[in-house]
Amino acid sequence: MAESNDRREQRLAKLEELRRRGIDPYPPRSHKTHTAAQALAAYEAAGEGKEVRVTVAGRLMSIRVMGRSTFAHIADSSGRIQIYLRQDILGEESYQLFRDQIDIGDFVEVTGPLFATRTGEITVRADNWQLLAKALRPLPEKWHGLRDTETRYRQRYLDLIANEEVRRIFITRTRIIRTVRCILDQKGFLEVETPVLQPIYGGAAARPFTTYHNALDQTLYLRIADELYLKRLIIGGLDRVYEIGHNFRNEGISTDHNPEFTAIEIYQAYADYHDMMALVEEIYHRVALEVAGSPKITYQGHEIDLTPPWRRISMRDAILEYSGIDIEQYRDYDSLWQAAKAKGISLTKQPNWGHLVEKLFGATAEPHLIQPTFVIDFPTEVSPLAKAKPGAPDLVERFEHYIGGLECGNAFTELNDPLDQRERFLQQIRAATQQGDEEAHPMDEDFLIALEHGMPPTGGLGFGIDRMVMLFTDQSSIREVILFPQLRPR
Fold it and tell me: Rounded to 5 degrees, what angle do the CA atoms 433, 434, 436 make?
């Protein structure tokens, strides 16, 4: 730390020297004409013998002084380009100023013609340069390979400077979101925005963050999902809607979970969960073609083929396949608990049979779902917003899709019977009060009033953008695909 402070003091001394000479170390604007990539492309396009003059700007990433000449590299968001400074071209004062007062990490602007060095590297021969911003702190040691995880997450700007792979991840993230938007827009979906601050949280099983509005004298919640507001829009006659935004869940932090995360929810009138499966297949397939150039991707050592159609399996059959337990033979909580125990499967206590089934699935089947799989037909007790499956009143028309052993999304044929929905909410309240279910869904009278005005048959779908990016960038931790993940205090 002392060495770092000493280097900062040295840079502060250079800053004061620049100001003493009447040079603004932080001028208000740049006169850049080309990005690094554009300058390289312009030279290639011009052909041999034609002069191309450019003004490029960026952060100094390397400096190699050789007496009265200096080679350096600057970087912007498009890439890097070499610059070449000579005392006989710039003049002694300007050249010595660069040599003595400029450091790696500073932002500079350089103007001059492009040429190719003897090694073939396209370079700007500077006949003018300007300091754009003096960096008072040096880049970390071995910045060109910054690997300390704590530093990378807490100081993401250093991570982006040092690691090209990290920049690629976040560029890919933007391409993924753009492609998803394009697909939905082409299909006639309308992108909308719904409240983040909500008087009643709902639409998922999760604990909320609570806040308070002083002027309204009212407790509010950061949304855990946007489902119930998007359904109100279906009721209002907007037949195809979607929203990409942040949700907030007051839960643990892990490689799979961040309390603030990006999700997309999609609702389509006159559709069901089969239609949502087809939409999921199309979205993931087209995103793969856009960002990977192939329907096949590699995730954590597994080659995964996203070509439709994907496998479909009921939750019952998935549990049976991977644990040997047929849940239909254990229709009460205690018998299912004992069946799992007999197989050596350790489960935490759950509020009811449906939640125990879900936990059993997660402990036995979920890690094996590497190839794209729709797990369908969930217990009603864990799905208070989904329509019952005809002929099986204890199940609902719901699926989750799994890829690479990750649960990537959730979808229903939406429950549109307001009386059934009211009873489901009442069951959730009983689960909260009698069984201590902290994630039970609260009663939402305003939503029930909306539902009583009539909602057509509807398919609904939600999936995490962050986990989608994990898949397409081959990352095992969600923190690698969120620019500023939530971290524990130092």
Answer: 70
pTM: predicted TM-score of the whole model, two decimal places? 0.91
The pairing of strands 240-248 and 190-191 is parallel
Distance CA 351, CA 437 (A): 6
Closest CA to 403 of 334, 490, 303: 303
Strand 373-379 with 311-314, pairing: parallel
Query: Mean of the pLDDT values across residues 431-448?
Result: 83
Cα 64 from Cα 72, distance rounded (Å): 6
In this prediction, residue 231 carries a pLDDT of 97
Here the tokens at position 275 are: 């239609």
- Spell out the alpha helix ranges (H) of 204-268: 227-235
Q: How far apart are CA 83 and CA 126, in angstroms?
A: 7
Q: Residue 488 — very low, low, confident or very high, per pLDDT cuts 50/70/90? A: confident
Give, in order, the Cα–Cα distances in Å from 396 to each of 175, 182, 452. Answer: 35, 31, 21
Q: Is 365 helix (H, G, I), strand (E, B) or coil?
A: coil
Contacts of 199 (CB under 8 A, 6+ apart): 218, 219, 220, 221
Reported in sequence order, the residue ranges of 189-259 that DSSP labels E, i.e. its strands, are 190-191, 197-198, 210-213, 218-222, 240-248
Map residue 165 onto helix, strand or coil: helix
Query: Which is nearest to 444 in space by CA: 232, 239, 238, 273?
Result: 232
How many whole angstroms separate alpha carbon 298 and alpha carbon 140?
32
Give the integer Cα–Cα distance in Å for 177 and 172: 9
Written as one letter, the residue type at 408 is C
| Interatomic CA distance for residues 57 and 33, integer angstroms | 9
What pLDDT, on a 0 to 100 scale, did the predictor assign at position 139? 87
Orientation of helix 353-364 relative to helix 333-342, angle to 10°: 20
Asked if residues 248 and 269 have their Cβ atoms less than 8 Å apart, the reply is no
Asked if 112 and 94 count as a contact pair (C-beta separation under 8 A), the reply is no
Nearest alpha-carbon partner for 116 in 31, 34, 47, 38: 47
